[in-house]
Automatic annotation (TrEMBL):
GO terms for biological process: cell wall organization; peptidoglycan biosynthetic process. It comes from Candidatus Taylorbacteria bacterium RIFCSPLOWO2_02_FULL_46_40. InterPro entries: MLTG-like. It is a single-pass membrane protein. Its EC number is 4.2.2.29. It catalyses: a peptidoglycan chain = a peptidoglycan chain with N-acetyl-1,6-anhydromuramyl-[peptide] at the reducing end + a peptidoglycan chain with N-acetylglucosamine at the non-reducing end. This is Endolytic murein transglycosylase.
Amino acid sequence: MFSKLLKLNPFSVKRFKRFSVLKKNRLGIVASSILLLTIFYGLFFYSPASFSRSYLFSVEKGATVGQTARGLKEKNILSSVFLFKVFVKLFGFDAGVLAGDYYFSREIGVIPIAWRLARGIEGQKPVRVTIPEGMSSLEMAKYFQKFERFDPEEFQKIAKQKEGYLFPDTYLFTPSATAGEVVTAMENNFWQKVGPIRDGLAAGQNFQEILVMASILEEEARKYETKQKISGILWKRIEMGMPLQVDAVFPYIIGKGTFDLTLEDLDYDSPYNTYKYKGLPPGPITNPGLDSIRAAMNPSDSKYLFFLTGNDGRMHYAISYDDHVQNKRLYLR
């Protein structure tokens, strides 16, 4: 019956054939689009299953695209060396890859990796690090261990020579920061912040001695006025030829605080031991903040020669040694 109708109506045959061709074309377009989208998605988002998160990859100056691709592949950052080369050529206009330290915080595909390296987009987000006042260089090292290129031993070697000059502050470092870069940034910040204060030194004041005193004050007190009073006491003891006898040096020397010290510890042989040797220690014991440096420069005068921090958390002063011993009995029980 249907064949009879087609014979009777040639126009219907043409319409049927045209409909079939259009339907096939549309299906082909849809299928091709899905395939292309799948390929594009894979190129843009697919990365190796064993990708190492938060990885820092360095491209040395003069490195070829091939060398870079193989390095990325070895580190499980890149899924296809061949496609990387193709897209770098497309994105870089034959310039190849640009030298730099590239930070990968998550999995990404071939296309964005090629784009970043061809355009020099390192992708390093600054990391905020806050260094409290009164920390020694030994204590500081732990704050930078999150950086992949930070070497604690190298930091100690460099920072030990800069003790007192590593300014406590909040810093922004890239994940590729090295020990040397950290020390340089902190020392530069020190001179930027402390330079104007140093220019206000009174006649006869020695900046290195001021800094050593400030490092002690940083450990002995928190309030500026208290630091000024203790500064006056300690400078007076130096003038009188009395040993400073401050416990603040012992965390730096032997890692012990006031309440853990023994009589044997007080006799520990170190040039930093202010019980055993008169005058200031040979160098800073911490990295002080601005208040401590100002207090060292501007001591307040008082009648006292002794002080201690009691178990009650308060400062107790004494004029004579006998009064100081009494304060020990009362407040260090």
